[in-house]
Design brief:
There is one protein chain. With about 300 residues, the chain is an alpha/beta fold. It has three domains: about 170 residues, NAD(P)-binding Rossmann-like Domain (Rossmann fold, 3-Layer(aba) Sandwich); about 70 residues, N-(1-d-carboxylethyl)-l-norvaline Dehydrogenase, domain 2; about 40 residues. About 45% of the residues lie in helices and about 15% in strands. The protein is built from twelve helices and eight strands. Strands 3-2-1-4-5-6-7-8 form an eight-stranded mixed sheet, sandwiched between helices. Helix 1 links the parallel strand 1 and strand 2. The longest helix has 25 residues.
Length: about 300
């Protein structure tokens, strides 16, 4: 049985822990206080049981403690931190883990913005340190990006990927520590073009969403972009590229339509408005519908595996 240590007590920690609980691992939650860690563990168990009513929740299997007060590393196979996205905080935590975690136990950061090469720079055991980037909600989105830093051990990175496969996730090994890793680079390339089309008045935000969801986005749940073109043929893609590529956006700055909304405080559901208005009841209903659709997609993907 894998024994996993999750450091942090926020939303990402809950989802990450829930995924491991659902997979049958023993999970240890560590926070600034044992009380906060205990609350995170309780939420993770609840999430796991919402996914799978038979998910293990035995008190003997899972633990909670304070970061500074807990030091039982026996049998631990993976340590992942999910603390606030603050570089100095992560750097300080990794320096402490470098000294405390026994050699051979890999350590990951869920940071989406700070490369592991910087977080682990100069640390004695940096070869066993990786980015392990999840996507929200962590308990439903299958992908985990395992990113090698400049000094990370590739073989140990492969072992971390295998741990995630055992846990029902779909890991990818990103072999170079570049901004945005793998999935976010692809996502931002799409977003840049989508926002450019909105800025240019070519399509509304709602029509952009519809176009993505019900065309290639619909297909991508069944086949990624490379496999999809293997099916349809690269020659037709290449002919279209000759016409389309020269007109695609290559802007290095944020789209006006987003910059203007941020300046106006319209940052999305959390602010009550973005491209759309989001009163609390409408936002709650849309979030629930979104999670329901994700669960349905998760079930379909599991059938394909």
């Amino acid at each position: 049985m894998d024994r996993i240590v999750v450091i942090g007590t926020g939303t990402m920690a809950d989802g990450i822990g829930a995924g491991f609980i659902d997979a049958g691992a023993a999970v240890v939650f560590l926070g600034r206080s044992a009380e906060k860690a205990g609350l995170a563990l309780a939420r993770a168990v609840q999430i796991a049981q919402s996914m799978n009513p038979t998910a293990a929740s035995s008190a003997a299997r899972h633990e909670a403690g304070s970061i500074e007060g807990w030091n039982d590393w026996a049998g631990v196979t993976w340590v992942i931190e999910t603390v606030a996205e603050d570089f100095e905080l992560k750097r300080e935590l990794f320096a402490a883990l470098d000294a405390r975690v026994p050699a051979g136990i890999p350590i990951g950061s869920n940071s989406s913005g700070f490369p592991i090469s910087r977080i682990a720079q100069g640390l004695a055991s940096r070869q066993r340190m990786f980015n392990a980037h999840y996507f929200m909600p962590a308990h439903l989105v299958p992908l985990v990006e395992v990113v090698l830093g400049e000094d990370s051990d590739p073989l140990l990175g492969e072992a971390v990927c295998e741990l995630y496969r055992r846990s029902g996730k779909r890991p990818v090994l990103v072999r170079k520590d570049i901004p945005g890793f793998l999935a976010n680079r692809i996502q931002h390339a799409l977003m840049r073009e989508a926002l450019s089309l909105i800025d240019s008045g070519i399509a509304s935000a709602a029509d952009v969403d519809t176009a993505v969801r019900y065309s290639f986005g619909f297909r991508y749940a069944a086949a990624g972009p490379v496999l999809q073109k293997e099916i349809s043929g690269w020659d037709s893609m290449a002919r279209a590229a000759v016409e389309i590529y020269p007109s695609l956006s290559n802007s290095a700055t944020l789209a006006d339509c987003v910059a203007e909304r941020i300046a106006a405080g319209k940052t999305g559901m959390k602010a009550g408005a973005g491209f759309m208005e989001w009163p609390a009841d409408k936002a709650a209903a849309e979030r629930a519908a979104y999670e329901k659709r994700l669960k349905a997609s998760f079930d379909v993907l599991n059938m394909q595996s």
